[in-house]
Amino acid sequence: MSAMPLTGGEMVVRALALHGTVQAFGIPGTHNLEIYRHLAAYGISHVTPRHEQGAGYAADGYARVTGRPGVAITTTGPALLNIAAAVGQAYSDSVPLLVVSPGMPLRHPRQATGLLHEMRSQTEALRGVAAFSHRVSTVDEIGTAVARAFTLFTTERPRPVHIEIPLDLLGSAESVVPLRLSPPVRPATPRSEQLARAGEALRTASRPALVLGGGARGAASELCSLVEELAAPVVTTANGKGVVDESHPLSLGVSLHSPAVQKWLADCDVVLAVGTELAESDLWSEPVPLGGTLVRVDLDPAQMYAGVPAHIPLVGDAREIVSALLSACREGPRGSSKAPPPRPATGAVAEGSRRMVQLRLVRGGC
């Protein structure tokens, strides 16, 4: 591969553009101007808030609404620490947020010299709140660091990342190899027998229910179809709000925190939880049992044992798994002579189901 000279400032912008970035948030400052210099040339628009924390929350909101990673650019020291609160929230809520900042020069002495915005270690400060904090040591390494971030965003549980570029690399031109794209790696998929077991549990359930979190957003259409196929009421966490339209006859809205809803879920024979931690922040209480059989769908294998452990764990992409479950519920097991039990359609029956659940909630003190 032939090498070409690029400055660190242009390298980071080119790497972002290569990975589809079209919008960034941040505040220009003395140390990051070499990054800002190249944004327009690579078609990246920019929004300047009043404070770096606002830039972090704006990028977080952009990621939640568009499904694309949010990108925020800060300057050094205090500016980077200003965005740490937004990074911490993005970590908690599994939001793909990339923070790019300058850092002290490569050969900056450990002994403080009074350089503008000097601090002991930006990397260590952000490592405590981000999925990882990567300080590069060459211009060429910038492309690798950006590709690493976007790989995490698309193949693992999405969480915030910080990339630090030493000041002396931003304006220095170095010979670099062609940029690297994040590899097209697909998330793990459950074994066919796990999917079949989950599909059978849902298909034969007499009192099914769905609990949806923020990780279900990419499967909204498929989940709506599954809700209707099962005639199953659905509740969401705050982060899952709107995955199924709250005007839908089977939607109970953002009510997972309600003690009455939790009592109702405990009475269900099968609960399908998609993209939610089922944690204290979702339940507003300690984790509680949710029905006879709990089927969990999540990108993060660790979630299958956290909070409320899954009886049937399904690790992988929510959209692919829910599509497979929908097919299993519609078709039933292959080679079976027994027809699946009939499911009521939405409409009057579904409205009746919702009203019955709501009546239980009211009687339960919701």
The average pLDDT value, as a whole number, equals 84
The SS-based structural class is: alpha/beta
Give the termini separation: 65 Å
- By DSSP (H or I, 4+ residues per run), the number of helices equals 14
Oligomeric state of this protein: single chain
Largest sheet: 6 strands, parallel
Query: Percent of residues in helical segments?
Result: 25-40%
Radius of gyration: 24 Å
Strand order of the largest sheet: 3-2-4-5-7-6
What gross morphology would you assign?
elongated
What is the ordering of alpha helices and beta strands?
Answer: EHEHEHEHHEHEHEHEHEHEEHEHEEHH
How much of the residues is beta strand, in percent? 15-25%
Regions with pLDDT < 50 over 5+ consecutive residues?
A: 334-350, 362-366
Based on DSSP secondary structure assignment, what is the total number of beta strands? 14
What is this structure, in a nutshell?
By secondary structure, this protein is an alpha/beta fold. The protein is built from 14 helices and 14 strands.
Plain-language structure description:
With 366 residues, the protein is of the alpha/beta class. 37% of the residues lie in helices and 17% in strands. It contains 14 helices and 14 strands. It has a 6-stranded parallel beta sheet with strand order 3-2-4-5-7-6, with helices on both faces. Helix 7 (139-155) links the parallel strand 6 (132-135) and strand 7 (161-166). The chain starts with a strand and ends with a helix. The model is unreliable at 334-350 and 362-366 (pLDDT under 50).
